[in-house]
Every structure is written in C-alpha cells, then in structure tokens.
Specification:
Distance between the termini: 26 Å
Number of helices: 1
Strand content: over 45%
Oligomer: single chain
Shape: flat
Radius of gyration: 23 Å
Length: 382
C-alpha cells in the first residue's frame, strides 16, 4: 500500500510538472552552453510554441506535434515554452533553453519565472532581479518581490512598500503603496491607507483610493466593491454598472460572471444580463464558451447563454481547438461544440487541447493525442 501511494504521488508530480502548471519555479548542466549532441535527436530549430513537455525514463524532454522527441529527456523538471524560451532544471539549478535545446541562459538560479514580454524574474541571494532574454540584468536593484511587466512598467516591493520600474530598471514610481498590481489601459491598481484606487503612469490618482476591494482593468471595466456589493467602473472612475452583486469576476471575452441570490449568471459590459443568475457554479468564458453547473452536473453555454453541451457531466474542462474534456464516470472523453462525444471516454486523466495536442493518461501511461483521438506519443509503448 505504501509503495502504491508513493507511485501515485510520483505520477501526480510528473503530471503537474509536464503540464507546466506552476508559476514561480525553483535546475545546471555539467557541460555549459549547449546541451550536447547526445541529448538531442538532432539540433534543428523547431517553433517553440509547437513543443510539448514529455516525461520518459525519469527525465523531461520535448516532443513536436508529430510525437517525435526533438529535445531528448535530460531535465529533472521542464516547463512549456513561453516567449520563446523554456525554464528547465538540472541538479537543483534553473536556466532557460531555446527550441533547439541550447541553453540561452545557463542554469545558475534556485528560483525563476517564465519569460513574459521579454523579461523574467530570477532569485539572487534571496531577492528578485529582472533579466532580459540575453540573461543581462535589468538595472542594479534587487527587490523583495516583483510582478511581470505590463504596459512597460512592473510593480516591485522594497522594504514592504510598492513602487514601479520601467524596462531599464529605473524606478519611475517611488515605493509608497501598501500593494501594487498591474497596469492596464494606462492605470495601475494600488492600495493606500487600506483603500484601493488607480494611478496613471505619472503616479497621479485617476480613481481615488476609496474602495474596500478592487481588481485591475480587464478591457475598459474594473470590478470594485462598495460595502458588501460589487459593481464596475470605467477608466475615468465612473460607476457604469452599479454595485448590486454579491460577488463578481472581471470581464473575460466581454462577459463577466456575477452572483446574486446565491446563483451565478453573466452580464455584458453595459451591465445587461446575458444569462440570468440561475447556475450554482460558473466559470469564465474561454474560447467563446463557459462552464456552468447546477448541483454536481456540468455543461457549457455559449456567449448568448445557450446551453450547447447539456449539464450532465461530473467534470468538464475548457474548450480549445473545438473540443473539451468531459467526464461522466471515471473516464474522460471529448465533446465538440455541438455536444457530440467525438473522442469516446477512455482516459483516466485528460487536459484541454493546446495547439493541436492534448495530454491524457491511458492505461496508466501518460500520452498525447490529436483531435481524432489518435495517440501520437506515449511515455511507454502501448
């Protein structure tokens, strides 16, 4: 029993690692700059967005959409490519590789983040610093904490206070706020004296700090809390959707899910109800469809509120490439946007498709399938 538990934990660990689900990751090759010919099938450039993490023989490598192992399993941990580079760990140290498997940034860090918009954060002596894709450090300052760049600025924390730097590392907003998040539509969300407001890039309050809770702008709307109710403001600070909801999420694909009377529905950016609050649970729209549930039964609606997949599944995951993983009993299959089961349920685990392939577990073995349900790669021979 103990051995089975250990094996189960190991399988779960590998599944999470290869799916690239963690954010701050925290591995050093003995030979430096390039992985070496013995660790690649061939040193050829492959579009990084087309590569998938694969686990084989106790190590992680990368396959292409045809299931060919183009970067041989060598890494203790590997993540998906973001912004053209992938974080990998060997012997406890992290670095970054390109789609040929060559190290672009040598493994030397204990913790790192994926690249986003040309920049990443790495830990040096217990602090965070920003680096470019060349590995060059941005500025000379190290920070207690930092967020990724948005609209050219990143909020950072020094001695418990938040300010913002630009992409050269220059502190353009001095650390004075209790919290600071991302800039969107020219406005950054900050907290001062326990209240939330929005500043512009010159550090002037456009929306005064008067809200108990708030979120960054998604599109031209931001959710704010007044008393016990949630509403939405526009980028001038005007309350365009009055606070009347018990709970609310930001606008995703021009729809926001809102809660009233213990039930969830969706509104558009004018506040018009698109889906009345009737669902026990709802998730944000993704690819034009949202997951909704009544009781323990899940299905999908489109942006008009039409139920395109009936609420009859125990679990569902988001649509991508026109297919969504669904589960009625113990096995997962895939439905299309008309609700037809196009890949019959036979997988003990299944993820949404990503650029043509989906990660599944079949007969205890991790694998990738194409939209026809054909296994294009598996950890062990089927």
């Amino acid at each position: 029993m103990a051995e089975e538990k250990v094996k189960g934990i190991d399988r779960l660990y590998r599944w999470v690692m290869s799916a690239g689900l963690l954010f701050m990751v925290g591995g050093c090759a003995p030979d430096g700059g390039n992985m070496g010919g013995e660790r690649m099938t061939e040193a050829r450039a492959v579009p990084p967005e087309s590569l998938y993490v694969a686990y084989e023989g106790g190590k992680f490598g990368y396959i292409d959409p045809d299931g060919e192992m183009v970067i041989e399993p060598y890494y203790d941990i590997a993540y998906v490519f973001r912004d053209g580079l992938a974080p990998v760990r060997v012997d406890g140290k992290w670095g970054y590789i390109d789609s040929t498997g060559s190290y672009v940034i040598e493994p030397e860090y204990l913790k790192i983040t994926p690249f986003k918009k040309g920049f990443a954060r790495v830990h040096v002596n217990g602090k965070q610093v920003y680096i470019e894709k060349s590995g060059a450090r941005i500025g000379t300052q190290a920070y207690d904490f930092g967020y990724h760049f948005s609209e050219g600025l990143a909020f950072v924390m020094i001695d418990g206070k938040y300010g913002a730097i630009d992409t050269t590392g220059r502190m353009v907003i001095e650390p004075e706020y209790e919290l600071g998040y991302f800039f969107a539509h020219g406005l950054g969300l900050v907290r001062k004296d326990g209240k939330w407001g929005y500043i512009d890039k010159a550090n002037r309050f456009v929306v005064p700090p008067v809200y108990e809770e708030a979120d960054s702008f998604w599109g031209t709307r931001a959710k704010v809390k007044v008393g016990t109710k949630w509403g939405f403001i526009d980028t001038t600070g005007a309350m365009v959707i009055k606070p009347r909801y018990d709970d609310a999420w930001s606008f995703i694909e021009s729809r926001a899910r809102v809660k009233s009377g213990g039930k969830w529905g969706f509104i558009d950016t004018t506040g018009t109800s698109i889906v009345n609050c009737r669902y026990d649970t709802a998730e944000n729209f993704s690819g034009g469809y949202a997951r909704v549930a009544m009781g323990a039964k899940w299905g999908f609606i489109d942006k008009s509120g039409k139920e395109i997949v009936p609420l009859e599944y125990r679990e569902v995951k988001p649509f991508c490439c026109g297919l969504a993983p669904v589960r009625k009993t113990t096995k997962w299959g895939y439905v299309d946007t008309s609700g037809v089961m196009v890949i019959e349920p036979r997988f003990s685990r299944a993820e949404s498709f990503h650029k043509g392939l989906a990660k599944v577990t079949f007969k205890g073995t991790e694998a990738y399938i194409d939209p026809a349900g054909k296994i294009v790669w598996s950890e062990k021979q089927m």
